[in-house]
Amino acid sequence: MAKRSSSFGAGVSEEDKKKVTKEGFKKALKIFRFTLPYKGTFAIGFIFLILSQITSMSIPLLMGQMVGAIVSPKNTSGVNTSEIMGGNMAVQKLQNLFKSSESLTLNEVTAIFIILLLLQAVFSFLRVYTFTQVSEKSMRDLRSELYTKIITLPISFFEKSRVGELMSRITSDVTQLQDVLSITLAELFRQVFTLVGGVLLISLLSGKLTLFMLSTFPFLVVAAIVFGRFIRKNSKKVQDELAQTNIIVEETLQSINVVKAFTNERLEVKRYGLSIQKVVDYALKAATFRGGFISFIILVLFGGVVGVVWYGGNLVLSGELAFKDLFTFIIYTGFIGGSVGGLGDMYAQIQRTVGASERILEILDEKSEVNVTNTLDFKKVEGNISFENVGFAYPSRPDITVLKDISLKIQSGEKIAIVGHSGAGKSTIVQLLMKLYPLNKGKVLIDKEDISTQDITQLRSNIAIVPQEVMLFGGTIYENIAYGKPNATETDVFEAARKANALEFIESFPDKFQTIVGERGVKLSGGQRQRVAIARAILKDPSILILDEATSALDSESEKLVQDALDELMKNRTTIIIAHRLATIRNVDKIYVLKDGEIAESGNHDELILKEDGIYANLVKLQFENVNLLVE
Ligand SMILES: Nc1ncnc2c1ncn2[C@@H]1O[C@H](COP(=O)(O)OP(=O)(O)OP(=O)(O)O)[C@@H](O)[C@H]1O
């Protein structure tokens, strides 16, 4: 559940703090389209809400009747109380409404009361249940649509949004809306109903006393505005500082190895301590205002009650008001006071909801790159690739041209390697082939078809990538391999593991394929993780394979196992190797050397190594020297 604030907007974040404009409000209402399929249930809930409200508003009247039956048992004889007490016209009108109950005895009133309470219980139950049904179901739909939207958005979207933020959209922002649907809306209605209905009823009981009671309102409103502003300002600071403390915890836990390696535990504890102290300081400042506000409210509220009793008592003594009506009046005053107190919180809730819906709608309005509802008519490509004068800059850094003019041709089944210094744009070429970003210039073709017009799912289904840093999901080894082809049989998964040289180590674990790999695969070694990733790619059986070679070398035994697995994987597939260690690419069909966004050299190893002062020849020399240095 979203954190609910105390009164008068405390705890509304800065993002939500903008005034609730008509426009923002209208926009936010759009989010309620998710409730439309359940409008019937909502209407039923609303009827129960009205019924339960009517029953609870009758409680003070019946209480009054009970008191009346106690203090004027003569009622039973049918004598009008207001006549005895010298009541006015309004009271009479109201009492005429309840004329029949006038002549009721205490037992009879109590019986009616009990029936009313039972009805109230039933109505309240049905109201809560139906509203919850609407809110749960519509928020399920919203969450599901939001998740579908997020997961189908292009990579460029994820570059500008942080994972933590997206998480809070789908969790706390949706919860905020859910709260509104299941609680706030009903609460708002109840409070307005109580306020308006209550004031109307008491004005019928005694106009004078009502005016007297209402005269305390301006004090409350002014106090709410003045104190509210200070409370909001300080609670915002508390929240911000609390967020800072959370960042410290998150950052240090994520990089706990670094903290430990640098023995910076003391430093972090101190940093955290300072941050939480700030939270306390701001919270105490806010408490000064909140405390002041609460004590003022209590003073005015109870002062008001005392005033009402005093003034009402005088009216009773002078015979202008029946005692039981004063009793009813006081209970209604309590009801009204409660609803006025709650209205400030309502405003804060509405502010927060408008903010939350705006943020959710922003995501829903983004354009997906994949349509998950379409069924895919999978077509296997041969794997002929060509880049024609491709130019590219990342959308997030448009003025830095990463690729200027790249042209290359790869025949189906060929193995090529892309070489170049770090940051030259090797991975970028591969990302463009996978259509992760749109090109600025030129064309990429697969089997002579321009990828810009191809369906993304169709395109990516033909490509498998074994990345530099293998990220596994937290589940079992089996699940991780089967991710390459979710409908694979057990035999397929087993066979893929065997071909990837992974079977031996998997079988050596007590739980075999059911071994849990730990978060991101931490419970496996680097070489083992790579072989799981290779098995996954073998299972996918793509026409095009991308190997983003690991920068760090494995030990020679593990290296051989991985290399053999890769050789198996590369068989009969167009393969692009992003090479970091040149020793592994001697046998590829062609090597492309990337420099300043262009292909500076191309040819096989034997050709390139002979080039005097060639970039490739120099790179090989450099790596060779480095290896020698390491050996020495
Ligand atoms: N998502 C991105 N947004 C903006 N710039 C990026 C992005 N990814 C990479 N770059 C920049 O584009 C350039 C090429 O990066 P790329 O990852 O293609 O290099 P690389 O040759 O694969 O490098 P390495 O060998 O270090 O992996 C670099 O200058 C990098 O900073």
From TrEMBL:
The Gene Ontology terms for molecular function here are:
ATP binding
Transmembrane intervals: 36-54, 109-130, 188-205, 211-231, 293-311, 326-344
Q: What is its main location?
A: membrane
Top-level taxon? Bacteria
Q: Could you confirm whether the keyword Transmembrane helix appears in this record?
A: yes
Q: What lineage, starting at the top, does this entry show?
A: Bacteria, Pseudomonadati, Bacteroidota, Cytophagia, Cytophagales
Q: This chain belongs to which protein, by name?
A: ABC transporter ATP-binding protein
User: What keywords is this UniProt entry annotated with?
Assistant: ATP-binding, Membrane, Nucleotide-binding, Transmembrane, Transmembrane helix
- List the Gene3D superfamilies: ABC transporter type 1, transmembrane domain (1.20.1560.10), P-loop containing nucleotide triphosphate hydrolases (3.40.50.300)
Which CDD domains does this one have? Answer: ABC_6TM_bac_exporter_ABCB8_10_like, ABC_MTABC3_MDL1_MDL2
SUPFAM superfamilies attached to this UniProt entry: ABC transporter transmembrane region, P-loop containing nucleoside triphosphate hydrolases
| Compartment annotation | Cell membrane
Q: How does it sit in the membrane?
A: Multi-pass membrane protein
- What are the ABC transporter domain coordinates in residue numbering? 385-621
Q: Enumerate the InterPro entries for this protein.
A: AAA+_ATPase (IPR003593), ABC1_TM_dom (IPR011527), ABC1_TM_sf (IPR036640), ABC_transporter-like_ATP-bd (IPR003439), ABC_transporter-like_CS (IPR017871), P-loop_NTPase (IPR027417), Type_1_exporter (IPR039421)
Q: Which SMART domains match?
A: AAA
One short Pfam name that applies is ABC_membrane
User: Where's the ABC transmembrane type-1 domain?
Assistant: 43-352
Keyword Nucleotide-binding among UniProt keywords:
yes
Q: Which organism is it from?
A: Emticicia aquatica
